[in-house]
Specification:
This protein is mainly α and 112 residues long. It is built from 2 helices and no strands. The protein has a domain of 42 residues.
Length: 112
C-alpha cells in the first residue's frame, strides 16, 4: 500500500469546458475589469530601414571601414596620435619642472 495517492486524475480539478477566464486563479482578479479595454490598434515599432539608427550605424560603419582600409588616412591618424603623445610628454616634463621648482622654493623658505 502506497503512502501517497498515485491516481493523478483524482488530484486534478474537474475543469468545465466553458469555464471563464475570471475563474483562473493565476490571473490577477483586480485587473479583470480592464481585459475588455485592451487596444487592438497598437502601433508597431518603426520598421523603416532608413530610420535614424540605421543611418547612424551605416555612417559609422562606413567611416570605420574607410579608416581601416585607407593607408593615407591611417598615416594621418598615426601622425596626429604621435603629435598628441609628444604634447603629452612635454606637458608631463613641464609639470615635473614646476614640482621641482616648488619643492626647491619650499626648501629655501624652510632654511631661512
Amino acid at each position: 500500500m502506497h503512502k501517497y495517492n498515485t491516481n493523478i486524475e483524482s488530484t486534478r480539478n474537474n475543469m468545465v469546458e466553458n469555464q471563464s477566464i475570471g475563474q483562473n486563479p493565476y490571473i490577477n482578479q483586480n485587473n479583470m475589469s480592464n481585459i475588455n479595454n485592451i487596444p487592438t490598434n497598437i502601433p508597431q515599432q518603426n520598421q523603416n530601414l532608413l530610420g535614424n539608427d540605421f543611418v547612424k550605424g551605416a555612417l559609422i560603419g562606413a567611416a570605420v571601414t574607410f579608416l581601416l582600409t585607407n593607408k593615407k588616412a591611417q598615416s594621418t591618424i598615426m601622425d596626429a596620435v604621435s603629435k598628441g603623445n609628444e604634447f603629452f610628454q612635454a606637458g608631463m616634463e613641464e609639470i615635473k619642472e614646476r614640482y621641482e621648482d616648488i619643492k626647491a622654493q619650499r626648501e629655501s623658505n624652510e632654511e631661512s
